[in-house]
Every structure is written in structure tokens, then in C-alpha cells.
Amino acid sequence: MKITKFVKGDIIIRVEPAVQYKEEYNSTLGIMQEIEVSRDNSYVGMPMKFIAVQNGVIYAEHLIEFWRTLKKGKAMLPEFTFEFGWEHFTLPEGFSWEDVGCVNPDELT
Predict the structure, then answer these.
(1) Using CA atoms, how far apart are residues 2 and 49, in angstroms rounded to an integer?
(2) pTM, rounded to two decimals
(3) For residue 20, how many other CB atoms are within 10 A of its CB?
(4) Which of 22, 17, 23, 14 is closest to 39 using CA atoms?
(5) CA–CA separation, 105 vs 70, rounded Å?
(6) Which letter, b or e, does each residue of 30-54 get, where b requires 16 or more Cβ atoms within 10 Å of its Cβ?
(7) Pairing relationship of beta strands 57-62 and 18-26 according to DSSP bridges
(8) Strand blocks (E) in 1-109
């Protein structure tokens, strides 16, 4: 899902890596081909509280305790790299926020 589909306060999670491609001519086949040049798995599997997309930047708040401590809770990601590959996060049945290593987003200010 595209990041711009979310609204402030949504709990989101990255489910696909950011992949960048370039077009290259294949002289053997005589065609242009799309070649993968990079794959970035950053933020895959990390629940975050969506804040906004402004000025080409995705603003979110980390929910995982480790990243809240390391990054003061905030994430700023370039939109052009991380635009696609997001979904709404749902807490697995029988798990608490603490079980998945996160703070409860309802308790954040």
C-alpha cells in the first residue's frame, strides 16, 4: 500500500523492501530490461505510528522500545525510497504490545 493512504495516528508496518531499478539495454536479446540495483529492508516488520508525509519525507514514531531509545522515537524516511510496501499493523491474537517489544501507541502523547 502507498504511504499516502494512511492518516495521522494509524499504526503501520513495512511489509516489502524498497527496491530500486534501472533500465539497461541487453544487447544479446536486443531489448531494454529493468535491472534491480538496490534492495533496502530497513523498517520491514517494525510497527510505527504514522504522523504525516510532508516535503517528500515520511514522519512516523517508532513503537519498538530499542528504536525509541536509539532514535528518540522519531523516524524520518525519504518518500521516494519508501513510498510503497506499507500495511496497517494488527496485533496478533493473544499478544500484547509488550510481547512484541513495543510501547502501547494509545499511551503516547
Answers:
(1) 15
(2) 0.84
(3) 11
(4) 17
(5) 18
(6) eeeeeeeeeeeeebeebbbbbbebe
(7) unpaired
(8) 11-14, 18-26, 31-40, 48-54, 57-62, 74-78, 86-88
- Identity of residue 3: I
Q: How far is residue 82 from each of residues 45, 57, 87, 99, 105, measured CA to CA in Å?
A: 14, 9, 12, 27, 22
Grid cell listed for 79: 518518500
What span, in angstroms and rounded, lies between the C-alpha atoms of 93 and 96? 8
pLDDT tens per residue across all 109 residues of the chain: 999 999 999 999 999 999 989 999 999 999 999 999 999 999 999 999 999 999 999 999 999 988 887 767 889 999 988 999 999 999 999 999 999 999 999 887 6
